[in-house]
């Protein structure tokens, strides 16, 4: 088992989990900064976004988890704030980051859909790297498997196989499955953003679709999913969608005794919603701007000057009439 603590400074232990998450945020930031330069957006803009996005993501991740596990917290409200005890959710982090980003973009005068497009590759690479924090903590894994499956079927290196041995039982490295899926997704997004047909907002929707598809199938292997007891038809529908995986894998048990995994249901809803929104925005003319079009802040000096000039020309024409 790998040591969760990277190093100590006096009484303070620095965990690999925190280092890995910090690295994930930094790599995502660098990707956004690099792409932002193509549109004349200064690096400081994205650095400030990170300062807003990370706390928003942590708060959103915690609220999401607590909301679905309220019975564990309602009699001990102080535990809600003790995130070091575990209990955060990636979808909640995404929701929190989007909300924080929306208000930040609005304050800076930038169009929301154009900026989330730029941030999408940074989000997915951050998730690809961040999953290795789960690896170090031996968490977010799947159900039991034979050691031979990890070594001889998946041909995983010894350090991964050893870390997947938890108290004498080997488990599915679902962190690895999702990380690799996200790496492929990153390559897809980098290819898509140079395609002339791509409209504003569609790179972000592509990220949602790709990530959610992978999350749906990987989630079915996990043993720590948030779940609830839903209608029989809904559980049957979710099981039918996941059934191709049964040709190779056994589904993980549901820890809380429900019959529907919340992350799987949300993943399906996000895929459907993203596709519908893309179609509707195109048909209604809401997505006329292309990804490659210039991005201009309504609060930038140049934009204000252009606005004043346009207003002056209009008044001049009115006076001549």
TrEMBL record:
<keyword id="KW-1003">Cell membrane</keyword>
<feature type="binding site">
    <location>
        <position position="131"/>
    </location>
    <ligand>
        <name>a 1,2-diacyl-sn-glycero-3-phospho-(1'-sn-glycerol)</name>
    </ligand>
</feature>
<keyword id="KW-0812">Transmembrane</keyword>
<comment type="function">
    <text>Catalyzes the transfer of the diacylglyceryl group from phosphatidylglycerol to the sulfhydryl group of the N-terminal cysteine of a prolipoprotein, the first step in the formation of mature lipoproteins.</text>
</comment>
<comment type="pathway">
    <text>Protein modification; lipoprotein biosynthesis (diacylglyceryl transfer).</text>
</comment>
<protein>
    <recommendedName>
        <fullName>Phosphatidylglycerol--prolipoprotein diacylglyceryl transferase</fullName>
        <ecNumber>2.5.1.145</ecNumber>
    </recommendedName>
</protein>
<feature type="transmembrane region" description="Helical">
    <location>
        <begin position="198"/>
        <end position="218"/>
    </location>
</feature>
<dbReference type="GO" id="GO:0008961">
    <property type="term" value="F:phosphatidylglycerol-prolipoprotein diacylglyceryl transferase activity"/>
</dbReference>
<dbReference type="Pfam" id="PF01790">
    <property type="entry name" value="LGT"/>
</dbReference>
<feature type="transmembrane region" description="Helical">
    <location>
        <begin position="262"/>
        <end position="280"/>
    </location>
</feature>
<keyword id="KW-0808">Transferase</keyword>
<feature type="transmembrane region" description="Helical">
    <location>
        <begin position="14"/>
        <end position="33"/>
    </location>
</feature>
<feature type="transmembrane region" description="Helical">
    <location>
        <begin position="80"/>
        <end position="105"/>
    </location>
</feature>
<keyword id="KW-1133">Transmembrane helix</keyword>
<feature type="transmembrane region" description="Helical">
    <location>
        <begin position="174"/>
        <end position="192"/>
    </location>
</feature>
<feature type="transmembrane region" description="Helical">
    <location>
        <begin position="45"/>
        <end position="68"/>
    </location>
</feature>
<dbReference type="InterPro" id="IPR001640">
    <property type="entry name" value="Lgt"/>
</dbReference>
<keyword id="KW-0472">Membrane</keyword>
<comment type="similarity">
    <text>Belongs to the Lgt family.</text>
</comment>
């Amino acid at each position: 088992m790998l040591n969760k603590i990277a190093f100590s400074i006096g009484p303070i232990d620095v965990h690999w989990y925190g280092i890995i998450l910090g690295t994930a945020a930094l790599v995502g930031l660098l990707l956004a900064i690099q792409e932002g330069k193509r549109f004349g957006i200064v690096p400081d803009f994205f650095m400030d976004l990170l300062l807003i996005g990370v706390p928003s993501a942590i708060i959103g991740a915690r609220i999401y988890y607590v909301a679905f596990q309220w019975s564990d917290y309602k009699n001990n409200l102080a535990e809600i704030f003790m995130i070091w005890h575990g209990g955060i959710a990636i979808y909640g982090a995404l929701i929190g980051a989007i909300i924080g980003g929306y208000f930040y973009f609005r304050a800076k005068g930038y169009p929301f859909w154009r900026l989330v497009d730029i941030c999408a590759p940074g989000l997915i690479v951050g998730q690809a790297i961040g999953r290795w924090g789960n690896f170090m903590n031996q968490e977010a894994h799947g159900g039991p498997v034979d050691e031979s499956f990890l070594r001889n079927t998946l041909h995983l290196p010894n350090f991964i196989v050893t870390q997947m041995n938890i108290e004498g039982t080997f488990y599915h490295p679902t962190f690895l499955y999702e990380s690799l899926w996200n790496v492929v997704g990153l390559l897809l997004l980098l290819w898509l953003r140079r395609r002339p047909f791509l409209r504003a907002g569609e790179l972000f929707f592509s990220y949602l679709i790709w990530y959610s598809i992978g999350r749906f199938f990987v989630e079915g292997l996990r043993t720590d999913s948030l779940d609830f007891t839903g209608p029989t038809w809904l559980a049957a529908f979710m099981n039918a969608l996941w059934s191709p995986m049964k040709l190779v894998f056994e589904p993980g048990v549901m820890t809380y005794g429900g019959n529907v995994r919340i992350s799987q249901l949300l993943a399906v809803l996000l895929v459907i919603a993203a596709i519908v929104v893309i179609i509707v925005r195109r048909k209604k003319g809401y997505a006329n701007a292309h990804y490659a079009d210039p991005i201009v802040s309504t609060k930038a000096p140049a934009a204000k000057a252009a606005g004043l000039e346009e207003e002056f020309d209009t008044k001049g024409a009115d006076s001549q009439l």
